[in-house]
Amino acid sequence: MKRITFWLAATAFFAGVVGFTASARHVAEEDQEIFVKQIPPGYRDWKLVSVAHEEGELKDIRAILGNDIAIAAYREGKLPFPEGAIIGRIAWRHVPSDENNKVFGRAQSFVAGEAPPWYLQFMVKDSKKYAATGGWGYAQFDKEGKPGPESDLKKCFPCHQAITDRDFVFTRYSP
Amino acid sequence: MKRITFWLAATAFFAGVVGFTASARHVAEEDQEIFVKQIPPGYRDWKLVSVAHEEGELKDIRAILGNDIAIAAYREGKLPFPEGAIIGRIAWRHVPSDENNKVFGRAQSFVAGEAPPWYLQFMVKDSKKYAATGGWGYAQFDKEGKPGPESDLKKCFPCHQAITDRDFVFTRYSP
To answer: Could you count the other beta carbons within 10 Å of the beta carbon of residue A134?
Structure first.
């Protein structure tokens, strides 16, 4: 009886291993998909999450927007972000405003200038499709709407994964 | 006959002067109203016009939002702005992000921090009500929603009136 039980258990175990391996292979195939290839429609009408300014090589000023799912999650403090959440960032050159400075009588004002090389970036939440990169697919587009090369996009998650306590999202909501 | 014509003309002229003076006095009374006393409801859900960064005494990073009337006018290049247009700006302290800089390995990232003393500002288009200040009423509020003193608000239009070719609005729309 003991022997029969052992074989039954062993068979179930190996069946499980085979099943797991097949499933892992399936996930591994899906994992290839870590990039978003289309600009999410209507993004320019989305609500504001926050703003930021990058110096260094970027020298841009940026707005971070969210679709309704992302904004609701931000406002409710819901983590991880729900499926379908999309966070977008639009960047512009950080340029001094001669017009403003002249009126104010001081050199203090910087505004949004031209689009930089990578004008738009998005994170799209789909836990299955983008399982390999924390459930987020990444994308960037130039001002003509051309997507960035995969070699660049592979650099997204290695940085984002540092933000473990906010579901890999850098930007906090600014009330 | 010439004399009668003269008197008729003179009477008409003086009647006109009296009418104009009365009308000017009426406008002058309305002109007192140059301030907006309430935070426009729902402003945090408005669409983005642009972003900016002020150094000097302000040291803030800001988002400029517009209600639907303002956004439509901006996108269509419609000037002057139609009645009911409202433009709002939210400011936050321009602060370095230690979290971002640590991940990027460079000190380059600035984000939105706490609310500065004058957290919110608005321009509300009502050509009759705010005739004395270019058709725009001005407002600012602290983070508790307390409106700014009239002495401060009197300083708005003297600067805004420099922007004659864009209906007294500093911020341009960033696509």
So the answer is: 22
Decide if B48 and A48 are in contact by the 8 Å CB cutoff.
yes
What is the C-alpha separation between A74 and B97, in angstroms, rounded?
19
Residue A19 has pLDDT above 70, yes or no: no
Question: Pick from A63, A94, A107: which is nearest to B63 by CB?
Answer: A63
Residue of B nearest to A113 (CA): B174
Nearest-Cα residue of chain B relative to residue A106: B56
The answer to whether the Cβ–Cβ distance between A106 and B162 falls below 8 Å is: no
Q: Where are the domains of chain A?
A: 1-31, 34-166
What percent of chain A stands above pLDDT 70? Answer: 82
Q: Is A173 exposed, middle or buried (0-12, 13-18, 19+ CB in 10 A)?
A: middle
Q: How far apart are CA B68 and CA B51, in angstroms?
A: 18
Percent of chain A with pLDDT over 90: 78
Which whole number is the average pLDDT over B143-171? 95
Q: Which amino acid is at A120?
A: L
Q: Cβ distance A87 to A65 under 8 Å?
A: yes
Where residue A32 falls among pLDDT bands split at 50, 70, 90? low
In this prediction the pTM is 0.83
Beta strands in chain A (DSSP E): 47-54, 60-66, 86-96, 109-112, 120-125, 136-141
ipTM over 0.90: no
Cβ B164 vs Cβ B135: under 8 Å: no
Helix H or strand E segment including A73: helix A68-76
